[in-house]
Write a structure and sequence with these properties.
The protein is an alpha/beta fold. The strands form six sheets. It has a seven-stranded mixed β-sheet with strand order 5-4-16-15-14-6-7, with helices on both faces. The protein has a six-stranded mixed beta barrel with strand order 21-25-22-24-23-26. A five-stranded parallel β-sheet has the order 10-9-8-12-13. Strand 2 and strand 3 (45-50) form a beta hairpin. Helix 11 (280-287) packs across helix 12 (291-303). The protein is globular and about 70 Å long. The two termini are 49 Å apart. The model is unreliable at 720-726 (pLDDT under 50). Bound molecules: iron/sulfur cluster (SF4).
Length: 726
């Protein structure tokens, strides 16, 4: 009898009959993995593999990327435009002409009656960059509303704001290759193995070779924290205190890079005076990290030859989000760790093309990192598009998180949602529901007709998704990569670019502005507009991008190579060429636990799902591994409340309540619970989402709840109903 290895029978996979492999880029997270989709003789995407010679992922994919091709056959897709006169009537199928005529006519009627800014547009981080640029042309150049923003306000606005305040411009300065050069890494509120699995793999591979210390700052013992050398289980919302204390130790012990501070920064005296107040003993009482650990981490970071910081939503989704980013930048500036291999401050972006929308969508300004407040920028873009610069507003309008309250107050009467789903993604679901019901007219443009927000729409426009379209996306490390068309959208659904172009024809300026039909022609316009700008892409083309498996901006017309890092010369984008060291006084402004609501509510992602599960909720393997919402709760706290493992509990806040399955685990401290944010009618029924004053990003991760056991049968019915809604 054979034992062990000799008895093993190799698994044989059924032959898939791939006729062609089509190069594309993953459309989920911002890692930017290059994928080849296997297409059969009938043109169907039937399998996928990572691209071996792509620098980002080197052949690897995570569970979402591996099964992304299944999206082409998922249920719930919109296959024809839909219209209805009154909300909650049955939708009726319509022709594209009727749906677009109705949309344009309603926008014009409402703008005429209530003013141009009474129409709002909320877009996404998931379109292709050429589509973002075209939507910007339509919104800024044709429709003419100033209330146009992206859902990236929910995930990356604090990073954008912090980069601009510190360095004078948006744009992550580092790259994944920095993991291979660093001597010390701090990850702030970033759970790479679940959020960005392939970046995690790059980091782990580099750490196996160089054995650099990994320090994780997170209130929860995340998967990344479990692999850390030092885990700082920080009190929620107090990152700024910790960062000030780290700077305090570095300056007090003379560990700073004095030469770099003098040549490349401004504001040092004010910064030094502020951090002098944050000695580790005082800071420890606020941020919950003991004073010796603060000193130890500060010394490790400052003494490393190269040190780098990464962060994700744990920093951004806070009332101090922008300040947290500025604090991380300052930590790197005072230690001379910007723009050198292994020394950087790198925001790990969320959505696949959150960077593309920041660069080209005109959401917060004009294309190519131009701003509405600058008359030269308005003139340049107006000349390029062939319209009067007076058509542009002279300052930025509302952020997404201000648009919804403006609907409540009656300032905004019409809303166009493009590939975003606020009924699940925004805090305080009950309030969002009432808000959407107040609109005179609402349009949803999405690949899925069953997206929750579509319940409130008057017109639904069915769009293509991912590789049903083509164009480029920019990843976390400024790498522009290509999506090639694998198959057409189903039924009458159309690429977003086509929809924007057709709608533009229905506005006066749409006859003046050129709206190219192909993505490569749109890319040529973007190249032209980027010449000489910080994010210059004039040296790129779709062909070159594919050949190189992605290129990092800036890459000017005459450049022989792309750029791995920014600010390597110590010159920044503020007028004096220096980076700013900004003092950050800490003011407690969260909804903290109290006697009535004694638990912190924390939320985040699981590896199987993406955002509101509009897509991953339809993919078999994703659902098999993560089918229902759940809540992580500390066993000691649960025992006191009589709550058992795998029972149901109700979590209640000042906004509402939700019933969830309890998973007892020491991953969360005694006074905290954690719930994944992907599920409809779950954590955002109770979340608060106070806004960061600089970025307008909501503090999803800090609010207060109470927990109680519920009668099990009733709870199961609630959960089953929620699960069936997908
Ligand atoms: Fe896609 Fe991100 Fe997974 Fe890569 S890590 S396959 S980009 S979801």
């Amino acid at each position: 009898m054979l034992f062990g290895r000799n008895q093993k029978k190799p698994i044989t996979l059924p032959e898939k009959k791939v006729e062609e492999w089509v190069y594309t880029t993953c459309g989920y997270c911002s890692t930017g993995c290059a994928i080849e989709v296997g297409v059969d003789s009938e043109g169907r995407g039937i399998t996928a593999r990572g691209v071996a010679d792509a620098d980002v992922n080197r052949g690897k994919l995570c569970i979402k990327g591996i099964f992304e091709y299944e999206l082409f056959n998922t249920p719930g897709r919109g296959t024809a435009p839909l219209m209805r006169e009154r909300r909650f009537d049955d939708f009726k199928e319509a022709s594209w002409d009727d749906a677009l005529d109705k949309t344009a006519a309603e926008f014009k009627r409402i703008q005429e009656k209530y003013g141009p800014d009474s129409v709002a547009i909320v877009s996404t981080g998931q379109l292709i960059t050429e589509e973002f640029y075209t939507l910007g042309k339509l919104a800024r150049g044709c429709i003419g509303t100033n209330n146009y923003d992206g859902n990236t306000t929910l995930c990356m606005a604090s990073a954008v704001s912090g980069y601009k305040r510190s360095f004078g411009s948006d744009g992550p300065p580092g790259c994944y290759d920095d993991f291979s050069h660093t001597d010390c890494l701090i990850a702030f509120g970033s759970n790479l193995p679940e959020q960005h699995p392939v970046i995690y793999w790059r980091m782990r591979e580099a750490r196996e070779k160089r054995n650099f210390p990994l320090i994780v700052v997170d209130p929860r013992v995340t998967m990344l924290a479990q692999f850390a050398d030092i885990h700082l289980a920080i009190t929620p919302g107090t990152d700024v205190v910790l960062l000030n204390a780290l700077a305090h130790v570095i300056l007090a012990e003379g560990l700073e890079d004095r030469a770099y501070i003098e040549t490349s920064t401004s504001g040092f005296a004010e910064f030094e005076a502020l951090v002098a107040q944050y000695d580790p003993v005082t800071a420890a009482k606020i941020c919950g990290i003991d004073e010796d650990t603060i000193r130890n981490v500060a010394r490790l970071y400052a003494k490393a030859n190269q040190a780098m910081s990464i962060w994700t939503m744990g920093i951004n989704q806070s009332t101090h989000g922008s300040d947290g980013v500025v604090g991380i930048n300052s930590l790197n500036l005072i230690t001379g760790n910007i723009g050198k291999p292994g020394g950087t401050s790198l925001s790990i972006t969320g959505q696949c093309n959150a960077m593309g929308t920041r660069e080209w969508s005109s959401c917060s300004g004009l294309p190519g990192y131009r701003v509405l407040e600058n008359p030269e920028h308005r003139q340049e873009v107006a000349d390029f598009w062939g319209i009067d610069p007076e058509f542009f507003p002279k300052q930025r309008g509302m952020a997404q998180t201000d648009i919804f309250p403006a609907i409540e107050t009656g300032q905004i009467k019409a809303l166009w949602l493009v590939a975003t789903n606020p009924m699940t993604s925004m805090p305080n679901t009950a309030r969002i529901r009432k808000t959407l019901e107040r609109l005179e007219f609402m349009v949803v443009q999405d690949a899925y007709a069953d997206v929750e927000s579509n319940e409130y729409a008057h017109v639904y426009l069915p769009a293509g998704l991912w590789a049903e379209k083509e164009g480029v996306m920019t990843n976390t490390e400024r790498r522009v990569n290509l999506i090639k068309n694998v198959c057409p959208p189903p039924g009458e659904a159309k690429a977003d670019l086509w929809i924007f172009n057709q709608l533009a024809k229905r506005f006066d300026n749409g006859k003046l502005i050129n709206f190219p039909e192909s993505a490569s022609d749109v890319f040529d316009e973007m190249r032209e507009l980027s010449k000489g700008r910080f994010l210059d892409i004039s040296g790129m083309s779709h062909e070159k991008i594919e050949q190189s498996r992605g290129l990092q901006w800036p890459m000017g017309e005459t450049a022989e190579e792309d750029s791995a890092r920014l600010y390597s010369d110590g010159k920044f984008n503020h007028a004096d060429g220096k980076a700013k060291l900004i003092p950050l006084p800490y003011i407690e402004n969260n909804e903290c636990p109290d006697d009535d609501y004694p638990f912190w509510l924390n939320s985040g992602r699981v590896v199987e799902h993406f955002h509101t599960r509009t897509r991953t909720g339809k993919v078999g393997n994703q659902n098999k591994f993560s089918p229902t919402p759940y809540m992580e709760m500390n066993p000691d706290a649960a025992r006191e409340l009589g709550i058992e493992h795998m029972s149901y509990a109700r979590l209640t806040s000042r906004r509402g309540d939700a019933v969830v399955l309890v998973q007892l685990t020491q991953r969360v401290p005694y006074n905290m619970v954690f719930v994944p944010f992907h599920f409809h009618e779950c954590v955002n029924r109770v979340s608060l989402g106070l806004l960061d004053p600089h970025s307008r990003q909501p503090a999803f991760k800090q609010s207060a709840v109470r927990i109680e056991s519920v009668e099990q049968q009733a709870a199961a019915a609630v959960t089953n109903r929620a699960a069936r809604s997908f």
